[in-house]
Every structure is written in C-alpha cells, then in structure tokens.
Design brief:
alpha/beta; three-stranded mixed beta sheet; 10 helices
Length: 255
C-alpha cells in the first residue's frame, strides 16, 4: 500500500499520510511521495487548494527514526526543492491547509509550519519533540516558526521541546482555527471552499508577495508587490470584481 494517498473533492485536493502505525512519521520513500503529490497539485489547473492530513488520529510525528536506523532515511540535500520531509522546501503557487489531529511534532511541526494555514483539532499537540533525541530542525523549522509566532515564543519551543496543546497553539498564532476533536478535516474543507470561491489570480499573487517579502529589502518587496499586483490588474479580474461591486454585490457587507 502506498504511504501517501490523494482524494479530490471539488477543487480541493486532500493529501493523506498513510502510516498510522508510526503516527504518520515520514521515511524516505514517503517524503518523495509527498513531494510528488504536491508538485502535481501545483501543476493541476483544476485544483485551487490542498489539505494535508494524517491517517488514524495523528498528523505527523516527524521523520521516521526507525526508518533512518534501517536505511530508509530521509533525503538531506544542500540544493534543490526536495526537503527531508519531502515538501518543506517547495514554494507552491497555491495554498495548503494542514488539518491537524493528534501529534504534529518534530518534522511534523515543520511540515505544519510549511502549510499556509493550520486547523488544529481539540486534543492536538505541537512540539519540537526531536529535541530529546538530538535530531535537528532541518526542514526550515528554525526559520518558519519564529516568523509565525515571534522569536521569543519560538525559542521557548525550540529549546525546551515542550508540548503545546491546541488552545495555546491558537493563542500564540501557531494554529489559525480550532476544530472539535475529529473535525479538523471538515473545518479545513470548509475553509478551502471559501478560499476557492475567491478570484484566484489575485489571492495567489497576494499570497506569493507575502511569502516572498521575507527575503527582500523594503524597496525590493515594494517592487515585487507592484509587479504581482499589475499582473492581476492586466488580467481584467479586478475590473470584473469592481463591476460586480458597482452592481450591488458588496452592499450590506456581503462577503
């Protein structure tokens, strides 16, 4: 059986890690399957949003250390966009939502941070659990986590490896939504449908500008935002939206 499965619902792709016996820890072959699934999603014009989840009540427990011990280790490359956990070096043109049940720890936390939005079910747990085994954050966890929740809070998690439950994750900005236990996928699907309903080029370009600005200075970031925004204006999408607004669609706060 493949350790990664995909399912299409409307214009949303659901990607599921299928290793519940290992709390969906990712070994080398699984990392490659995740990478391939999301590369295919990004190239598919029929899909707007992807959701990543784990099977059997856990999101992802990180890299499979048993796999490492048995020679099925994760790829650690200096160059290219294949990360040790598969997807963490990819820069996609479309959003990904993490639907988190159970543990999202170690490399699983890094994968969750790679996603654009995180829906955390009650009872879910985040944490740098690899701290206790001397395994480094090598899937951009030391980069993305401080950017998501701030340097001080990130340093607390990185140094101590302590567990962070769903409510605290929401309070510090690590989780974007909280769902009932067992309801993360349904909440993520609802969120994905809302994203899919928007004019896509505008949303995607604003997203790319927000991601890209981290590595740019002010003038470069300004120029990049203008360039992406001009692409949207030239497409006619904004004119079409303004016409809908003028016809009354925005009246009364309709959204």
């Amino acid at each position: 059986m493949e350790t990664v499965s995909t399912e299409v619902r409307g214009r949303t792709l659901i990607v599921t890690i299928e290793r519940p016996q290992a709390r969906n820890a990712v070994d080398g072959p699984t990392a490659r399957l995740l990478y391939d699934a999301f590369k295919a999603f990004d190239a598919d014009e029929a899909l707007d949003v992807a959701i990543l989840q784990g099977r059997g009540g856990a999101f992802c427990a990180g890299a499979d250390l048993k796999g490492v011990a048995e020679g099925r280790g994760n790829p650690v490359l200096r160059d290219g966009d294949l990360g040790p956990m598969g997807v963490t070096r990819l820069r996609l043109g479309k959003p990904v939502i993490a639907a988190i049940e159970g543990h999202a720890v170690a490399g699983g936390l890094e994968v969750a941070c790679w996603c654009d939005l995180r829906v955390a079910a009650e009872g879910s747990v985040f944490g740098v659990f690899c701290r206790r085994f001397g395994v480094p954050l090598i899937d951009l966890g030391t980069v993305r986590l401080p950017r998501l929740i701030g340097a001080s809070r990130a340093m607390d998690l990185i140094l101590t490896g302590r567990p962070v439950e769903a409510k605290e994750a929401f309070d510090i900005g690590l989780a974007n939504r909280i769902a009932p236990k067992g309801g993360a996928l349904d909440a993520a699907l609802e969120l994905a449908a809302k994203l899919s309903a928007f004019p896509q080029l505008c949303m995607r370009n604003d997203r790319l500008s927000a991601i890209g600005q981290w590595s740019l200075d002010w003038d470069q970031a300004t120029a990049a935002e203008i360039a992406l925004g001009m692409d949207v204006l030239r497409s006619g999408a904004s004119q079409e939206g303004a016409t809908r607004f003028a016809a009354g669609e925005g009246r009364g706060g309709k959204f």
